[in-house]
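Cross-posted from the bioinformatics board.
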Amino acid sequence: MTQSAIRLWSGIHTWTSLVCTLFLLMLCVTGLPIIFHDEFEAALNPSEFTPGNPDGPMLDLDQILDRSLDNRPGEVPLFMSFDIDRPVVNVTTGPTPDAPGGAMWFERFDQTDGSIVAAPADAGGIMDFLVQLHTDMFLGLPGKLFLGAMGVSFLLAIISGVVLYWPFMRKHRFGLLRLERSARTKWLDYHNLLGVVTLGWVMVVGGTGVINTLDDVIYGYWRDAALADLIADYPDRDVPTPEEMASLDQAVRAAIEAAPNMTLQFVAFPGGTFSTDFHYAIFLHGDTPLTEHLIAPVLVDAVTGEVAGLREMPWYTKALALSQPLHFGDYAGLPLKILWALLDLLTIVVLVSGLYLWGVRKGYLKGARRRDDEVPA
Amino acid sequence: MTRLWRVFAWPLLILGLSLFGLIISLVGNGLWDVAGWIGLFSPLAALVWARFVRAPSNA
C-alpha cells in the first residue's frame, strides 16, 4: 500500500467516523439497556396476570373491538395483536386510519371478560424514552432516516478501518497489545484489535439497523406496489367506518383457514401502512424458528368479508423482517443478549478510543508522539 | 500475498465464526442456539487471549 493510498483511506476513515461517532455512541448507550427490555419489564412486574373470568367463554374479536371503541369514542381501530402466553388482546386505535405513531392509543383487553389490563410498569417510562431516542430521536421519519444515514457513514468507517488494519498490522502478529508503551500506542492497539474482532457483529447490527430505519419506507412501498391489484376493482370510496365493517372475528377465522401451518400475529385495519384502504390485512407467521420471523397477510374485504387470499411477502419485506431479530439479538435466549451487551460495550471502547486517537493526533489531547510505523488513522 | 494472509487469517476466522453464530441461532433452537453462542463468543475469546496470554510476552 502506497503512502498516498494510506493517506486517502485514513482521510475516509477519519471523516466517516467523525460524522457518526457521537450518534453511534448514543445508539450504543441507549441500545445497551434496550437489549434487556424483556427482563427489565419482568422484574418490574412480578405479579402474574389473572384472567377476570377464567372459566367462562372467551369474548370474540368483534366484542373486543366494540369494547376498545367504547373506550376511545370517536376513534377508529388501527391494529389488533394477540399475546402469546395469556388471553389478552391488544388494540391500537387512533383519530384517523392513517394516524401517525404519536397519535395512536394502545390498550390491552382481557379476552375472558373484556376488562382493561393495566399497562406493565416501566419506571417512569424510561424504556419507552430510550427506545424512542434510539429509533428516531423523537423526530419521526426524518430522525429515523438521519440515523440510517449515520449508520451508512459508520459502515464506511468500518470498511476503511479494515483497509487500514493492513498497514498497521503487516509487521505484527495478530493480537498486538503494547500495554507497556505510551497511552496512545496502547489505545491504538486496542482500537485495532477490538475493531477487527467485533467486525462481523458490528457489520450485522449496523447493517440491519440501517435497514430497520427504512421500515416505514419499505412497508409503504410494499403496500403501494404489491397490493395495488387488490384495490384496482374498487371505485373511489372512503375507508370504511367501524360501523360499515364486516365481522372481524369471521375474517380472522377465514384467514387462519386460508393459511395452514401459520400462526396469527396481528390484524391491520383498512387505511394504514399495512393494508389497503378496503381490506383487513390479517398477518400470520410461520411455525419454524426461521419462518416465525416471517409474516404474510391474508387480505379480507373489510365490508363484504370476502377473502382475497394469502399474499406471500416479497424479498425486501422478508429482508426487513429478518433484520429485526438480527438487530435486537433477542432470538437465542439470555446468553445471546449478554454477548450482545458485551459486544456493544466493546464497540463503545472502539468509538471512544477512535475519538481519543483523533484528539491526540490533532494536538487537542496530550499523548506520545507517533512513530513512523504508526500511521495516523 | 502470504503476509496479507498472515495478517488477516485470524480476523477472517473470527468474522466467519461470528457470522456463523449470528445465523445459526436464527435458523434453529436448542443446540443451534448453543452453536450460535459459541460462534459469537469468538471475538471475546480473542480479546481475552490477546490481553492475558499474548500481551505479557509482547515486549
